[in-house]
Amino acid sequence: MRKMGGIVESCAIKEKDLVKQTNAQNFLKLLNTMGNSLVSRVAEENRTQQQRSTKIVLPKMEDINKLYKHINTVIERCSAELNNSFNMKMWLRLSKATLVQIMLFNRKRPGDVEKSQLSEYETLETISKDATLFDETQTQMARQFGRYITRGKLNSPAPLLVSELNMNAITLLLKYRNKAKVSRDNPYLFAQPPGTSRKFLSANISLKEFCKEVELQNKNITATKLRKHLATVTGTLKKDDIQMVSDFMGHSIDIHNKIYNQRAIVKEICEVGPLLLTAVGDINAPCSSQMVSDVLVDTESVSDVMEIDTVGDVMIQETCSSKQRKNDKLSSPELSETCEIVNTPSQSDDGCEDDPPYQPDLSIILECDSNTEDEEGHSIATRRERVS
Prior knowledge:
Blueprint: H1 2-15, H2 18-53, H3 61-84, H4 88-106, H5 110-114, H6 118-121, H7 136-144, E1 145-151, E2 157-163, H8 164-175, H9 203-213, H10 223-233, H11 239-249, H12 253-260, H13 264-279, H14 289-295, E3 309-311, E4 314-317, E5 340-342, E6 365-373, E7 379-386
Antiparallel strand pairs: 1-2, 3-4, 4-5, 6-7
Helix pairs in contact: 1-2, 3-4, 3-8, 4-8, 4-9, 10-12
GO biological process, one term: DNA integration
Keywords: DNA recombination
InterPro entries: DNA_brk_join_enz, Integrase-like_cat_sf
């Protein structure tokens, strides 16, 4: 809207139409002062409404497993044929299969994998077989996978785990790269053969092609849904483990829990639901006694809570325990153990007016017969009043 207003103003200046120019300038002023909040609010409401009404269907584990195994089979067949002789069709299919499998296994964004460069893959690291690891699982994983780091979203590092099968496939892709007529100036690992404007293969398009080749219950599998699937199945892990998964996926822990993790309905129904039933007094609620004791508070056991009671203009301030904070302002320590009641000079506890305050007569003679000392050593004068 602001751009359109600027165009109208420019046209009015060229046409020397002062009325049209003034109207355009007034429109831009109103848009800058009042339009931004109004348009932003409407757009935000529409966006949130669309998000609430959109139902997210995550792919099932069976479909993911079928797709993963199918891509493995494709890589093995294409690699076997390319080991015998070069075939352009097999080379391109092998490149797409390797690209999709790395993205599917690592649950990365499409751009993190498809924009991988040759220089980044050359920094591939593996764990030495002689390294001392904690258990057999880690030893097995160290033998099967390597890792290289590519550029992720907002220039963040995006680690990619590559299996031994993928390493062998990439070796074949690099071997026949010249025969596939890929330009030497093309820096991308999964390079696109000449004939298109793109320099690298599209991970999204390749994923859709392989989903059509397999009999899946839901063929609409995308990279975002795969990422949400991983965040959901790992939602019951410990906090440190969830932090590790979110760091590997390339987003913050808040985004991981609020956007990608789809277990909100499980928590709200299965965990919050029993608490709500218990709160309304349902004795048959499936809520443990420990959970009830942590949530429900016995108000009768709270006896030292600060109370403020107003009756007329009378205010009872604090409790005896809180009064101890003012010991330094009191001359006698015995007063710190009592509660202070402050009455206004106009009314008493029963709401009736008191007698006017006592006004001493000037004829009063104060005499100090003797001096005494309190427990703290302060001098206290004992006064006697004699009325003449």
